[in-house]
Amino acid sequence: MALLQSHAVVVVEEQVEVEEVKYKFALTRQGLGFKQTKLLEACGGDAELAKDVVQLLTTKSYGSVQAEAAKGKNNLCVTLGTLGDDNTATVKLTLGKEVFWSISESSRAR
Q1: Is 2 left (phi over 0), alpha (psi -120 to 50) or beta?
Q2: Sign of the C-alpha dihedral computed for residues 100, 93, 43 and 84 taken in this order
Q3: Per-residue exposure over 77-98, b if at least 16 CB sit within 10 Å of its own CB, e if not
Q4: What integer is the mean pLDDT of 77-92?
Q5: From CA 32, how far away is CA 65, in angstroms rounded?
């Protein structure tokens, strides 16, 4: 039986056998949720940029994202590319609109 929540990000997994019964353990952390339509709007309709923003934010620690959000008054500014490069893109996201503290929270949002 799987008890892993859909919004959990697996950090490490291990399977052990005790008296011929196999157990699978996973160390997880909570993951962010995104409202895809709103995220795509914030990225100017660029699906590749939206995908990159999600990838960057999901690789950050939950605590660092919380600190950035608190500092930005519930806004996150995500910059992708090399600073000073013409291909740099900055996307401003608002908590509760494009990004959420969990997938379940984002699925309840309108």
Answers
A1: beta
A2: negative
A3: ebeeeeeeeeeeeebebebeeb
A4: 83
A5: 9
How many Å apart are CA 11 and CA 58, to the nearest integer? Answer: 12
Residue 20's alpha-carbon distances to 1, 2, 16, 23, 26, in angstroms, are 17, 19, 10, 10, 20
Q: Of 5-9, 13-17, 20-24, 40-44, which gets the smallest average pLDDT?
A: 5-9
Gap between the Cα atoms of 82 and 102, Å rounded:
29
Cα distance between residue 94 and residue 101, in whole Å: 11
Query: Which amino acid would we find at residue 7?
Result: H
Q: What is this structure's pTM?
A: 0.70
Whether 28 shows a pLDDT value over 90: the answer reads: no
As a 3-state breakdown, the chain gives helix, strand, coil percent values, each rounded to 5, of 35, 35, 35
Secondary structure (3-state) at 59: helix
Looking at residue 5, what is its pLDDT?
Answer: 63
